[in-house]
Structure formats: structure tokens, C-alpha cells
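During the reporting period the student researcher (J.K.) took over the structure-prediction task from the postdoctoral fellow and processed the backlog of single-chain submissions. One of the processed entries is reproduced below for the supervisory committee.
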Amino acid sequence: MYTCAYLLQCWPTYSETILTTPLGPAAKLVDGASALTPEELMRDFATADHSVLGTLVHVYAADRIWLGRIKGNPPARFLVQEQDMHLAVLRSDWPALLERWKQWAALLTEESIHRDISYKSTKGDAFVTPTWQIVLHVVNHATHHRGQVSGFLRAMGHIPPSLELTAFYREALR
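J.K. obtained the following C-alpha cells:
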């Protein structure tokens, strides 16, 4: 069994892997969402982000704000409705954002994963969080919401793309 000490010892490699993994599932879900009608894309599922598009945009915006916080230049606003609530933005800007995450993760060291990040929440509250906890949060957050979108697609009678981590790795090794 892996221990916390073992995980932290191999953290730079592990964090680079878990941060690059979402690129495949995110793209698959955006592709799946592209096949929906406008009504299906915006159907309200009575969740915090309401719809398939709203949930995907929420994950994209969270990925963007967390990378900005880590680098010390967060966007002024979490989400700009008029600018962000479009599949075209997710198709063009999200892959580029995930590539910036990948480049950042490739530079992680044993020292940098323990570095504290000071930032403000979207409500203006100040926090300090270790880098490794932010990475785990970003991955966990995206996984949660990808599962929601997968469920939304099923509820509308669509077959969602596979989001299984092992399937992703099998595809990547082909």
C-alpha cells in the first residue's frame, strides 16, 4: 500500500500525470456536448451549474482561476457569462489552458509541491494552501463535474464517452 510519504516522494511525476489526464475526458465531453441540441445543452438539471454547458464552463473557469492563483495572476472574475458560455470557447480555450497546466506541472519539484500559495477566493477571503492540495482539489473538482455531465447526457438518452481513468491510459498508450 502506498503511504503519504511515498506519494509525496513521487509527487512531481504523479501531479504531472493527474493534471494532464483531464485533457482527454474534457475534450470527449465537449465533443459529446457538441452533438446536443441547444435545448439539451441548456436543459436545467437543478444543480448548481444547471446544465451541460453551465457545468462544463464551470470546470473550465475553475481550471483557469486555479492556475492563475498558482501563478499569481488570477482572472478578475471567475466567469464572464457573455464570453465564456459557449462551446466554441471550450473547444478552443480549454485545451490551451490544460496545456498550460501541463507545462506548469512539468516544472514541479519536491520543493515546489510543498510551496504555500496565497490567494483570495471569489468572495475576497484570503487563504494560504499548499500547492499539492490545490492540485488534488483541481483534479477532484473536475472529476466530480465530469461525472455530473456524464449523468446529464444519460438522463437525456445519450451515451456519454468513457471517462474511466484506465481507459484513458489504454488509449494514450496506443
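The committee noted the following: The mean pLDDT is 86.
J.K. will present the remaining backlog at the next meeting.
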